[in-house]
Amino acid sequence: MQVFVMWERAISIDQLQGDQIVESLLTESESELFGIMTGAFRAQLLAVALKRDLFTYLANKSFKLEQLSEHLQIPKAPCKIFLESLVAIKLLKKSGDTYGNSSMASTYLVKGRPEYQGANVKLFESLYDACKELENSLAEDKPTTTNFAYFFDDGDDISSNYANLMHESGVVPTLLLMEYYDFSNSKWLLDVGGGSGRLAATLTSQYSGLGVVLFDLSQICAQAQDYLTPFPTLNSRIEIYPGNFLLDAFPEGPDTILMMRIVHDWSDDTARLLLRKAFTALPPGGRLLIFETMRASDDVPDDTFAISLLMQLISPAGHSTRLFS
Known about the structure:
Layout: H1 28-37, H2 39-51, H3 54-57, E1 63-64, H4 65-72, H5 76-88, E2 92-95, E3 98-101, H6 103-108, H7 118-126, H8 134-140, H9 156-168, H10 171-180, E4 188-192, H11 198-206, E5 211-216, H12 218-228, H13 232-235, E6 238-242, E7 256-260, H14 268-281, E8 287-291, H15 305-314
Parallel strand pairs: 4-5, 4-7, 5-6, 7-8
Antiparallel strand pairs: 1-3, 2-3
Helix pairs in contact: 2-7, 4-5, 7-9, 10-11
């Protein structure tokens, strides 16, 4: 197969060799630009591969096109296009007529492995539609929505779906939290917006003297109860407290309050409200922990730009959230 990549310069046919894809004919800048232009394709290729459980299927063995076509339930001709595209973006590798995971896919895209990123892929895919309104959001300096209907509405299903995404994507932040802070001196911790209980279960399993109060919406608390039921030894030290952290007072009694991935997407006024509630609920000498993804420097843009754009698009506070990007 010969692939001709034509930019505004003459390319001699004898520069092309057999099965070679001529990325080498692009300058580094051209290659980077092409990667940006095709970013939507790349993101969707990754999302589809995860939905069809491709990387986990390839975790321990490479397979031929026919086998993968059957597993993926994709006809042979489009399946080949799909697999070759994943090879091109370095998520798969091809050896002869078999396909296997690249080292990147093996590390980050196989279910059950410590650094699995499937939940984050799913999260960003669920927010993809908001990007269609990016131009208007920037020009008018306001989000595409003025409430959190994008995350929650009156139906339990959407709230539960968002909680599932936060649950699945919370493994790494939870482990990092324990690297940053030692909870040995805490007796009771209030987990504001605690979701389905991953953090509560992890902390109580690592600190035998710690109890956790999980504070979240009632439908999320029901989900947390289901998640925590198989862990009876931990259940005795986890109290589930249904409520709305914007409308209701915080439960009193805990000596430590944690807001993990909570404050960043609210306005300054709402953030101050949450801090006042925490101050009221804590005893003298109590501790408030705020755990967020932060830029290393205000002067040097980095990969957290995606979170800043996300907040601009869908947060009720819009531009006010950039402090926490």
